[in-house]
Structures are given as structure tokens and as C-alpha cells.
Amino acid sequence: xxxxxxxxxxxxxxxxxxxxxxxxxxxxxxxxxxxxxxxxxxxxxxxxxxxxxxxxxxxxxxxxxxxxxxxxxxxxxxxxxxxxxxxxxxxxxxxxxxxxxxxxxxxxxxxxxxxxxxxxxxxxxxxxxxxxxxxxxxxxxxxxxxxxxxxxxxxxxxxxxxxxxxxxxxxxxxxxxxxxxxxxxxxxxxxxxxxxxxxxxxxxxxxxxxxxxxxxxxxxxxxxxxxxxxxxxxxxxxxxxxxxxxxxxxxxxxxxxxxxxxxxxxxxxxxxxxxxxxxxxxxxxxxxxxxxxxxxxxxxxxxxxxxxxxxxxxxxxxxxxxxxxxxxxxxxxxxxxxxxxxxxxxxxxxxxxxxxxxxx
Length: 360
Ligand SMILES: [Zn+2]
What we know:
The chain is α/β, with parallel strands linked by helices.
């Protein structure tokens, strides 16, 4: 079968024929891949910049891809909640089997670090025509969202992070006088797919959402901001016109993009760090530390997602499709073949929100 393979830390990706001889053992499922999404992590691996990327043990190459959507072709003995023809999205991280969090399905909070991640570290990914996976790592998707369900994985990470915000902010009374979040402002730094999902989530919770970037919005970004009643704010004109924030989410990974916003944070607010980067030297100084302390500001990093977060992401996609019509389809800015993917993996196409590869 056709697959997109990489040899980390070498630069580049290749479309080639691979034969993995994967039998459908008890508890496992054969899936025909429909779509896989391309994200910054994939480009980081192909560009040789993700130091933790590694092939499965005893293999020199890794099949790329962690944002997948497929259709069940065959189920192994003992699989009861899936049948041939069902649409499924696979979970990315697989637990260490040792720590308590992994043993209760919360491998996103693995304590040992000995987990594997499909298409990233130690486990082949989904950029191939078919794969066999454990039923316990597959999330069923309704037909009604077949056209956008490839977005489930990136959204699952946002579902987790926003859940963390709501959970942590229970440290006090944080809702408004009418029990809503309508008096709260959420700043989202970055307007890629992850930033867009954070904006959608906070808008759904009832926050006043500010989508921040260092430039004016693209036509697609304007439509998204308008549809969800968010304000798109160009930070290149300074921060003076922004109100105070109750939540700041950074999806850019650049400290220089979110540190100037810390002076805009309300008392008891929360900063969520989601993005990562490798070349920014902005520093946190003593004055900033004092401000974080004196204002009870919480700082949380968030990565990955549990199977529950994937299922919740499927629910949000279903609800948003009903509420916003074709808005989510506008996030999929191009659909390409596996052969075209090697170039798209090296260089982000201009105007991209999400590029997806069509497999069948
Ligand atoms: Zn673990």
C-alpha cells in the first residue's frame, strides 16, 4: 500500500509502497483511510526540527500522520462497539501501561513519558491507505460530519485545554452574576486551525473573543470572526485598544507574542500556553513575576488529549455544523493527493488554514 514515510531526523518525506502484514487480531480493526490532515508537527518532523520524532522500534522509517479519518473495513473477534462501514478517528497517544493516568485512559497526562504517538514517536501514523488499530483507541464519528471529521484530532487538543481552564478557574467564583461567562474576555493569540478552534470554543462558552494576529485577517478569517461574533485584532498597531483579558491563550509559541499581553490580564485570570517554537529570546522579568503573583494569575501548559476529549470534539463539530453551516468547511483550504503532499509538507501553501490529503 501507498504511504508517506519519513526518516527522522533527516529532512524530507517520500511516498512509497510499504507492506506491514498487519493481521486483524482479536480486539483490533482494519481501517481504510479517507483523509489525513497536515499540521505544524508534521512539517516540523519533515523539516528535521522535532527532536523527539522517532520510528517504531526495529524500524528505520516512520509513517507520518496523526490527524486521521477512516472507515472500518473489518473487525476482529471481541470488537462490539464498531462494525464494517463505521467512520472512525484514531487517538494519537498510546499509554505507557505503567503509570496510573495511562491505566485509566488519561495517557495525555502520562507520568513516565514512555508513551508512543502515532506518526510522531515510536508508532506508525495514518498517512497510508489502510491501517490496523486497537478498537479501544478508535472514536466513532457520525456520517453527518464526514466532510469535517478530519478536524477531530486538532480540536480534541483544544477541548482538553479549554476543559483545563474551566476546571482550574473553579479555584474561585469566576462566572458572571447571571452564571454565564458573558462578562469575560478571551484573547487567542494566533489564527491557524488551533487558534480558530480556541476562538470557536470560547465563543460557544459565551466569552467575548478576541482573535489576535500581527496582520489583518484573510478573507476566511474575517468570515470566521464575523460568524462567531469575535473581534479580529491586528497587534501590529499596538495593544492600547484592547480591553483587559480574563483568559489569554497562546497558540503561536512565541513569548514575544504573548508577554506584552500579560499587562492586560485581569485579576484571577489564566494564561494557557499551547504553542511551541524554537527561536524566540523574550524573557520573563521580576516585574512580570510580581504581577502574576499579585493578581492570582494561573499559568498552565496543555498538550495532547484523551479519548473522551476526541468524543467531545466530535460533539462540538456536530453542533457547530448545525449552528454555523459550512463555516468549518472553510477551514479546509485545500484537499490534495498523497503525491502532492510531499511538497505541501515541506512548504505551507499560502492562505492555508488546514490542508488535508485524500486517500480514498
Ligand atoms: Zn504513563
